[in-house]
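Hey, sorry to bother you again with one of my protein questions. A protein chain has come my way and I'm curious about its shape. It would help a lot if you went through both lines with me. I owe you a coffee for this, so here goes:
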Amino acid sequence: MFGLQDSPSDPSTGRTFGAGGGAIIRTSLEGRGFSAAVADTMLRARRESSTKLYGTYLQDWQKFCSERQIHSDSASVLDGLEYLQSLVDLDKGYSAVNTARSALSTVLVIAGVPFGQHSDVKVFMKGVYNLKPPMPRYTSTWDVDMVLRLLKS
């Protein structure tokens, strides 16, 4: 991971790719007119672990936008869907793509609607679900009766 001094930056926003998820979300909130105090309070709506996880995808989103000369805060639904498709093309599963969708929803609000709530995004996510359904957490289970019999003997 880059240190903040030597991090590459997005020329359209001046943000560094090494900036954490909280810093990216804060900049987006302040860019939408929220005061620093309000942005701080809003950042506390998510657990630190979620903000950290979102940071991975938000940094990737900024890099994606920079490479295409798109301003990451004012991108279109189409731009966001192209980013999500790039994750599908990298063989990411539904859960990863859904997390990226949630992360984008924190910084990309289009016509007053968070990215993830747009109808086209919902249809896309249904397609991802059908293409790459979430894998069950456990692929096999133990027969409890057999285990108890073995422990008893």
Remarks:
- Confidence is low (pLDDT under 50) at residues 1-18.
- Strands lie at 109-110, 113-114.
